[in-house]
Write a structure and sequence with these properties.
The complex is a heterodimer of chains A (417) and B (523).
Chain A: H1 3-27, H2 30-65, H3 71-77, H4 84-106, H5 112-129, H6 145-175, H7 182-230, E1 253-255, E2 261-263, H8 279-308, H9 314-348, H10 356-374, H11 383-414
Antiparallel strand pairs in A: 1-2
Helix pairs in contact in A: 1-2, 1-5, 2-4, 4-5, 4-6, 5-7, 6-8, 6-9, 6-11, 7-8, 9-10, 10-11
Chain B: H1 2-18, H2 20-39, H3 46-57, H4 61-73, H5 83-112, H6 120-124, E1 128-134, H7 137-150, E2 156-160, E3 163-170, H8 177-198, E4 200-207, E5 211-216, H9 224-239, H10 244-251, H11 255-265, E6 267-283, E7 290-301, E8 304-311, E9 317-319, E10 322-331, E11 338-344, E12 351-355, E13 360-362, E14 368-376, E15 379-381, E16 387-389, E17 398-405, E18 408-416, E19 430-437, E20 440-448, H12 452-471, E21 475-484, E22 487-496, H13 500-517
Antiparallel strand pairs in B: 1-22, 2-3, 3-21, 4-20, 5-6, 6-7, 7-8, 9-10, 10-20, 11-12, 11-19, 13-14, 14-17, 15-16, 17-18, 21-22
Classes of the chains: A mainly alpha (417), B alpha+beta (523).
Bound molecules: protoporphyrin IX containing FE.
């Protein structure tokens, strides 16, 4: 079996587990709970296998390009932590592992309904964003042993932060009473935005991206013809212009350096919804998003009732939130910031250059330092601290995805023409 | 009265800096303002950020311009070097120092204060576990001692009214972990300041075959005259391997004035010379994905070649505290280099030739004469098979060769450096386009940073501090042996400033061991 089949199986398993955990939350049937755990473990096993197989696949590619490289170096350089896709997969793997550890340690399954959706969201994001799943050779900047430790430790830390996000959110759900309360508004609006963004991305995917597949085929054909004709791949899609018979907007496509044609994210993200060209479409999606957020706010207490009736105490949630961060913070400091700085120093001669990605890591770090110190402040225990934990993970998401997708998008736009 | 008032003001200032509230506010301020710095492009051309603002807020060009003007005044276009951001960092450091000093005495007392046996009263108010064993305390003493030792504690034993008390503590110094962590942040800041004050960060675009004795960190634009003056100064410094004093002496100019000019133009003398022997980009086969950027460098000191090294990204060259990093590359404008061609006749040995445009050459042992007619750094073909150059950089370097025999043109075509299938001629000879040497420069990042070791030391200290803070704790344990008729009640009390459950697990194990070892039953 190849790695993508196994990844597919694990994706299905996690999404199924998510549904079963939520069912468990609603009906509290212990057999349903056991089923959820079994499905999660099955997904985890298949994902582990998939990662190992992918590693061997990328090892094979590495030694093909670098036949002179030693065994150990080849193994390290081909570790599957080399692009956005692989690192997200590793993140999900760590998250599920961390979750299973907590489930067995605290003998409590109700977290599952909050952790598996994060895995589900990450998996959905992988497909909706259409990020490359190819095994590509390493560009010179990434040919360093620091890549492995830096990325690995960062993602272990992110997984612990994701756990604290779930327990922090549960804490807020459990502890907030009134709709007017700021903590209540915070968690409902945050969850509402998450939900709205994901639904929008789904709509964009169906309405804009899927119809573009036929055009993508046309561009791919042109790329192939280009290769046959000139013995090389084009550096930019624009070079394919003269080879196209049909009218295709090449701006919507990217060509990777290994020659694969992709539909560029910018061409469809929010294009059917929030950023739609038709005024009605865009107004409607903004209104729908607001409506959704309102609905979460209005009916948030249903969720509270669901968790409230489970044998789960707010103290336990608070403890898990703190402990996850207490493990994640040192790992993130060392692996994310310090090793990142050492690597930058070795590769570019500056250990800190304030680029958006570095700065966002620092912002994330400050949010968690804020969390650790806010516990020491009088009157800050409980809900306020949980809000900081939730914001910490939002900063993580932005560091990882927002900087790549939004900031680089903004900056790239600035430099167009 | 007067004095008292003064003191209270100092106290107020002290308390202000010692408060965690201030720390949390600073965290929020540094974090919040940094967000702006990641959205606005730093040190960029104004037009870029204007476009950004238009896109973000949907405002007109004029409004965006004035908004950017305001942001620029506030320092947001180079915010990490703005006075207020640096002030924020200093405030942060002051907060950290004073807060730590404020608390240290109390913590130090906790660290140094030796553990004392607990009074009966204290035993009541502390988490504990109990067990009753058969036998007098004297007989059980040994076993309890062993159990405490096995749990990793060195204990003190005290005789009490009706029994004994064992007590012990471990990890009292771990309470200092937080201070070690805080100290590390100060070390890192100090290292950064040392680097900014005494270090140098610049670049050197070194053409193939050229030798330089200076690096650059220019700030601002120069006029034509200034540029000429700058060139003249570089010329002078080249002859003395970057020694400004020597250059001033040789050319009879004022040393101080020369140094001031060097500072003005961002010329930084290396104190030795560096030459680029060659630069090459290697691509992954069959794709446009770069595999390696490599520069062959030679360091020259006192006219002698002292170091030769080829550098790639992630593997720089360091000499005399100055490090050269592979960071970019490009074409030297208007340069005329040498085409290195490797000619292999159908039957014969290969021969390497250096030539220029319009040079002619003979394929050895034949009458076939080639002429190097044209060159493109980045050759591609359009739909009608017409060649065109798609980039300035050497993305796909190619030469156009025309072959003739006895004055008659035979055939012609493009030979591409990266594509061996284009090297074969119809007659079975091969002409390989090996390199176009002397037209590319290697972009080196040049750095000298005496503070980097302080930063690294700070990083190590931080790792140690965080480990102590989060994974170690100050544990205390008291074991009381109380005589009850012919039995002994054993009470284990414990405290830990962190991770108490782990210590409790240890105590449970201890008790389980005790209850087994003496055959006594738990009651
Ligand atoms: C980004 C910079 C900082 C980092 C990484 C940091 C790190 C830490 C850590 C890891 C802890 C232990 C928290 C816990 O056990 O939950 C801590 C505690 C503490 N920090 Fe910081 N800190 C920073 C800045 C500051 C500043 C500016 C102050 C100034 C007020 C401060 C004051 C304290 C205090 C008073 C404690 C509690 C000490 C104790 O429990 O005895 N920290 N810090």
């Amino acid at each position: 079996m190849n790695s993508s089949t196994l990844f597919g199986i694990s994706t299905m398993a996690y999404i199924l587990a998510m549904i079963i955990y939520i069912t468990y939350l609603a009906f509290k049937n212990s057999q349903v709970g056991i089923a959820a755990t079994i499905v999660t473990i099955a997904g985890f096993v298949s994902q582990t296998l998939a990662i190992v197989i992918r590693w061997t696949e990328s090892y094979a590619q590495w030694i093909m390009f670098n036949p002179e490289s030693s065994f150990i170096l080849s193994v390290l350089r081909s570790a599957p932590l080399r692009n956005l896709f692989e690192s997200l997969i590793f993140f999900i793997w760590c998250l599920i592992l961390g979750y299973l550890i907590i489930e067995f340690k605290y003998k409590n399954r109700s977290f599952g309904a909050f952790v598996t959706p994060i895995a589900g969201l990450a998996l959905a994001f992988i497909d909706l964003s259409g990020m490359s799943k190819e095994i590509e050779p390493l560009v010179p900047a990434l040919q360093s042993n620091w890549l492995l430790v830096h990325v690995m430790m960062s993602f272990i830390a992110y997984a612990t932060f994701a756990l604290s996000f779930s327990t922090g959110l549960m804490y807020l759900i459990l502890k907030t009473e009134k709709r007017g309360e700021s903590s209540y508004i915070f968690w409902t609006v945050t969850s509402g935005i998450f939900l709205a963004v994901l639904i929008m991305m789904g709509i964009d995917f169906v309405k804009v991206k899927i119809p573009m597949y036929s055009q993508k085929k046309v561009v791919e054909r042109a790329a192939k013809e280009y290769y046959v004709r000139y013995g090389k791949m084009p550096d930019h899609v624009i070079e394919l212009k003269n080879l196209l018979n049909e009218n295709v907007d090449l701006q919507n496509f990217d060509i990777t350096r290994s020659g694969k044609v992709d539909i560029s994210l910018k061409s469809y993200l929010f294009k059917a919804t929030l950023l739609s060209k038709s005024i009605a479409g865009s107004v409607l999606s903004w209104l729908a998003s607001l409506g959704l957020i309102f609905a979460v706010w209005r009916y948030g207490h249903v969720l509270k009732r669901m968790i409230g009736s489970l044998a789960i105490s707010s103290e336990m949630l608070d403890e898990i939130t703190y402990k996850s961060i207490a493990i994640g913070f040192p790992i993130f400091t060392l692996g994310g910031l310090i090793f990142g700085a050492i690597w930058a120093d070795q590769a570019w001669g500056v250990y800190w250059s304030w680029d958006p990605k570095e700065t966002w890591s620092l912002i994330t770090w400050f949010v968690y330092a804020f969390f650790l110190h806010s516990r020491l402040l009088r009157g800050w225990r409980g809900k306020k601290v949980a809000i900081v934990a939730v914001m910490g993970f939002i900063a993580v998401i932005f560091t990882y995805l927002g900087v790549n997708l939004l900031l680089s998008g903004l900056h790239a736009y600035g430099s167009l023409e | 009265m007067e004095e008292n008032k003064n003191k209270s003001l100092i106290d107020k200032v002290w308390n202000f800096f010692a408060s965690i509230t201030l720390a949390v506010v600073i965290f929020a301020l540094i974090g919040g303002t940094s967000i702006v710095g990641t959205i606005l492009e730093q040190n960029a051309e104004p037009e870029k950020n204007v476009k950004l603002l238009i896109k973000m807020f949907g405002i007109g060009h004029e409004t965006a311009h004035s908004l950017l003007g305001v942001l620029d005044k506030l320092g947001f276009t180079d915010m990490y070097h703005s006075w207020w951001f640096i002030a924020l960092l200093l405030l942060f450091a002051a907060n950290l120092i004073i807060c730590s000093l404020d608390r240290l005495p109390r913590i130090w007392k906790l660290v140094k204060e030796p553990i004392k046996p607990l009074t009966d009263e204290q035993f009541k108010n502390i988490g504990k576990k109990e067990l009753v064993l058969k036998g007098k305390p004297e007989k059980l003493k040994e076993a309890v001692g062993t159990a405490v030792k096995n749990a990793g504690f060195k204990f003190i034993e005290a005789r009490e009214a009706n029994g004994y008390q064992f007590y012990s503590e471990k990890g009292n110094y771990t309470r200092l972990g937080v201070y070690i962590t805080h100290l590390s942040i100060l070390l890192i800041l100090a290292g950064a300041i040392i680097g900014i004050t005494f270090g140098f960060k610049g670049f050197l675009n070194l053409p193939e075959g050229r030798t330089y004795s200076v690096a650059f960190a220019p700030s601002g634009f120069l006029s034509k005259e200034e540029e000429a003056e700058m060139e003249a100064i570089i010329e002078k410094l080249q002859t003395t391997e970057g020694n400004a004093q020597e250059a001033a002496r040789q050319f009879g100019v004022d040393e101080k004035a020369l140094k001031a000019k060097m500072k003005r133009y961002g010329i930084w003398p290396l104190g030795f010379s560096i030459r680029c022997d060659n630069f090459l980009v290697d691509f992954y086969k069959g794709s446009n994905m770069p595999k390696e950027y490599r520069s062959w460098l030679t360091v020259i000191q006192g006219g002698k070649e002292v170091v030769k090294k080829s550098i790639v990204v992630n593997d720089p060259l360091t000499y005399a505290g100055v490090t050269f990093y592979q960071s970019s590359f490009g074409m030297v404008p208007n340069a005329h280099g040498e085409f290195i061609m490797k000619i292999t006749p159908k039957s014969g040995a290969p021969e390497t030739r250096q030539m220029h445009r319009d040079d002619k050459f003979i394929i050895p042992g034949t009458d076939l004469q080639g002429t190097l007619k044209d060159f493109s750094p980045a050759l591609s073909f359009d739909a009608n098979n017409r060649p065109f150059t798609f980039a300035e950089q050497m993305n796909n370097p190619a030469v156009f060769l025309e072959f003739s025999e006895k004055g008659k043109t035979k055939y012609s075509g493009w030979i591409m450096k990266r594509y061996p299938q284009t090297w074969a001629l119809p007659d079975g000879h091969t002409v390989e386009f090996a390199d176009y040497w002397g037209v590319e420069y290697t972009g080196l990042q040049v750095r000298k940073d005496p503070g980097v070791w302080v930063v690294y030391l700070g990083c190590i200290v931080m790792a140690v501090g965080l480990y102590i803070t989060f994974f170690m704790s100050h544990k205390k344990i008291w074991v009381k042996l109380l005589e009850e008729k012919s039995n002994t009640r054993i009470i284990v009390a414990l405290t830990a400033n962190k991770n108490r459950p782990a210590l409790e697990t240890k105590a449970d194990k201890m008790i389980a061991l005790l209850s087994k070892s003496d055959g006594g039953g738990k009651q």
